[in-house]
Design a protein that fits this description.
It is built from 16 helices and 14 strands. The chain has helices at 15-20, 27-41, 45-48, 89-102, 117-129, 141-152, 167-175, 188-196, 223-232, 255-258, 287-296, 298-301, 308-323, 326-344, 366-375, 405-419; strands at residues 52-53, 60-64, 71-76, 134-138, 158-162, 179-183, 206-211, 236-240, 267-271, 281-285, 355-359, 378-379, 381-383, 394-398.
Length: 430
């Protein structure tokens, strides 16, 4: 908890802050402390986290039960595979062709031997998708955010960021010399005040960092208001659209298209690990900015290039996004169907994207509830204290185009059963 009452949790959560509580201890003491905590408080860790999946990432997956060692089927409501591209036939076929043509890897960075015809094709396709002049591909979304922030900003600059921003952005800010200014989540007046404040140097620039879709709650940054505000104050707007790319907007371009400001965002960062179903990241912007980053984003210069098979999978995913727009419609239909059902159960939810956060009462034992979801064959993600305050613990549900109404009905039925369990209201987790 910060002094002003803003909680630094969720995607930016640093467990060391909680486990060590400011104490200066040696490496071995840190390891021993965590081992004791893991044994005492997280004895059922394997049953709730790092579950062993033995099948493709579809609407239904096979998971090894940690208690019995046997494989059983579960309905997957914890994956960011929003469009079902991770196991789409067209994606698999194009990957097979890429393996035959390029093998499985390149063993080098993009500036040397790690740049193929497929990589250039993907840069062009992503530029078109994001209405930008040029695109740079990174090996992960994390390295894209780190490389973007450390490559672009200097000690004379100020970076104004939403408190709910991802840990990768926070880590990039820790690595550079720019002044970092946090703003209250989606608070335009707080953002305006930060933009009006004096900058570290007269020659310095202001950068504003927000996320198109925030992953913990699934809410959106109001880009239709943020874009003109940044232009008014001469600030460069950076949008992390990891969870919006492929899903939001009429064509799947992303959250900027959803708000009608596509082409007006200065820099867009995105990932391939959400709707596109694989791994990697990218930054789309003007040609001068991207050419600058090719040499000054160290996480790009000094990382091995994405293997052609991964690039081929992303290209195939973009094919599907263009050719099968009904998938986005199906995601939206499923979101609406789940929302209606949850409201009937008393939940106050109104998700604009494919993420639905189910807040649990402060008195509920969320870990016991998570065990019951698991036992019932419903795979959902549990977000518990200290990643969030006790009063904001939640289950994070991800909706996919491949879910059926019967799948969602089962999710609703299980949720109703768990929330009606009086014994779950006995205590909270430590």
């Amino acid at each position: 908890m910060l002094a002003n009452g803003q909680y630094e949790g969720g995607e930016s959560f640093d467990p060391r802050q909680v486990f060590l509580m400011g104490r200066a201890v040696s490496f071995r003491e840190r390891v021993d402390l965590f081992s004791r905590l893991l044994g005492e408080q997280f004895g059922d860790y394997q049953s709730l986290y790092m579950r062993l999946v033995t099948s493709p990432a579809g609407r239904e997956v096979e998971v090894i039960d940690s208690a019995t060692g046997k494989t059983r089927k579960m309905l997957m409501f914890g994956s960011n595979n929003y469009l079902g591209l991770a196991n789409h036939p067209h994606v698999i076929e194009r990957v097979r062709n890429a393996i035959r043509e390029y093998g499985v890897g390149l063993s080098g960075p993009p500036l040397l031997n790690g740049y193929t015809r497929l990589h250039r094709e993907l840069e062009e396709r992503l530029s078109a998708l994001k209405h930008a002049e040029e695109t740079l591909i990174f090996s992960t979304g994390y390295s894209a955010n780190v490389g973007l922030i450390t490559g672009l900003t200097s000690q004379n600059d100020v970076v104004i960021y939403d408190r709910y921003s991802h840990a990768s952005l926070r880590d990039g800010l820790k690595m550079n010399a720019a002044k970092a200014v946090p703003c209250r989540h989606n608070d335009l007046e707080d953002l305006r005040a930060a933009l009006q404040a004096p900058r570290p140097a007269p020659s310095g620039d202001a950068f504003v960092c927000v996320e198109g879709v925030y992953s913990m709650d699934g809410d959106l940054a109001p880009l239709d208001e943020i874009v003109p505000l940044c232009k008014e104050h001469g600030a460069t707007l950076i949008v992390d659209d990891a969870h919006g790319t492929g899903v939001m907007g009429e064509s799947g371009s992303g959250t900027a298209e959803h708000f009608g400001v596509d082409g007006a965002v200065d820099i867009t960062m995105g990932t391939f690990s959400k709707a596109l179903g694989v791994v990697g990241g990218f930054v789309s912007a003007s040609k001068p900015i991207i050419n600058y980053l090719r040499l000054f984003a160290r996480s790009y210069v000094f990382s091995a290039s994405l293997p052609p098979v991964v690039v081929a999978a992303v290209l195939a995913g973009l094919d599907v996004i263009e050719r099968e727009p009904w998938l986005r419609g199906q995601v939206r239909d499923n979101i609406g169907y789940a929302t209606e059902g949850l409201r009937r159960l008393g939940f106050e939810v109104d998700p604009p994207a494919a993420i639905i956060a189910l807040r649990v009462p402060a008195s509920m034992n969320i870990r016991e509830a998570a065990r019951r979801f698991n036992q019932a064959g419903i795979f959902v993600n549990c977000v518990e204290y200290p990643a969030v305050p006790i009063g904001e613990q939640r289950f994070r549900i991800s909706m996919m185009a491949t879910h059926t109404k019967a799948d969602i009905d089962r999710l609703l039925e299980c949720t109703a059963e768990i929330w009606s369990g009086a014994d779950l209201l006995a205590s909270t987790c430590p």
